[in-house]
């Protein structure tokens, strides 16, 4: 049940970052003629999470058990965690330009940074859980993912 709640929170935060970064990119495209790469990277991280990472991490256990290898799960968790870390740090550095700004795009950039930082923490938690499973099964030839990593509702 914990993993289900964690995955739902990850999906909702990724959706929130997608909406806020899309708004920021739109505002920059209307005014400055192009959105900053920091915003584009967080936009990519949210799409990566919603389209590739979370479907693999949630559906592979039940529908594609051969694809739910413990190293595949770890790789997906780790890469996604690194994307979120890099994205929120890059946008946090970029938003220092907006200090004292009261425009909606400034608030959206700060909100996107905050949501992305929380998303990074959530993916850090799930990455640590997959590392713990790798450590527990280091001496076995069993490639199955940890049952506690499956996002079950019951």
TrEMBL record:
It is found in: Membrane. It is a multi-pass membrane protein. The keyword Cell wall biogenesis/degradation does not apply. The chain crosses the membrane at residues 40-59, 71-99, 111-135. GO terms for cellular component: membrane. Its main location: membrane. Residues 3-128 form the MARVEL domain. Keywords: Membrane, Transmembrane, Transmembrane helix. Pfam families: MARVEL. This is Marvel domain-containing protein. It comes from Mycena alexandri.
């Amino acid at each position: 049940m914990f993993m289900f709640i964690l995955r739902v929170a990850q999906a909702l935060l990724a959706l929130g970052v997608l909406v806020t970064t899309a708004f920021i990119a739109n505002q920059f495209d209307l005014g400055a003629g192009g959105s900053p790469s920091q915003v584009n990277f967080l936009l990519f991280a949210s799409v990566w999470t919603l389209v590739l990472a979370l479907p693999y991490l949630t559906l592979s256990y039940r529908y594609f058990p051969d694809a739910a290898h413990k190293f595949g799960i770890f790789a997906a968790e780790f890469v996604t965690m690194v994307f979120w870390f890099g994205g929120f740090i890059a946008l946090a550095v970029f938003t220092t330009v907006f200090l004292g700004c009261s425009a909606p795009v400034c608030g959206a950039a700060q909100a996107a940074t905050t949501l992305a930082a929380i998303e990074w923490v959530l993916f850090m938690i799930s990455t640590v859980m997959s590392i713990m499973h790798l450590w527990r099964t280091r001496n076995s030839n069993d490639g199955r993912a940890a049952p506690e990593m499956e996002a079950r509702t019951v």
